[in-house]
Design goal:
By secondary structure, this protein is mainly alpha-helical. The protein contains 3 helices and no strands.
Length: about 100
Amino acid sequence: MSISSISGAIPQIPIPAASPASETAGKTGDFKNFLESAIGRVESSRAGAEQMAKDFISGDNEELHTVALATQRAELELDLTLQIRNKVVSAYQEIMRMQV
């Protein structure tokens, strides 16, 4: 029995390609847009899991294992987002402590 890759099961977050500083100087909203879209994906995943749970409770054609998987995926995405936020805040605080 072979083990297949789980890369299809995990949503990929697109990472903007690195570009020279002169090109990124004019793109002030890129990072903001990237964060907004990432947070939007996490929120939509949470909302989808919540809707699946409501459908399961109301007796619609929803399987228990798919509800559990969607709920777990939404929870993991939120945990990952919080960890990334914590790392960014920590890096910002470290930069602010540097002496020039």
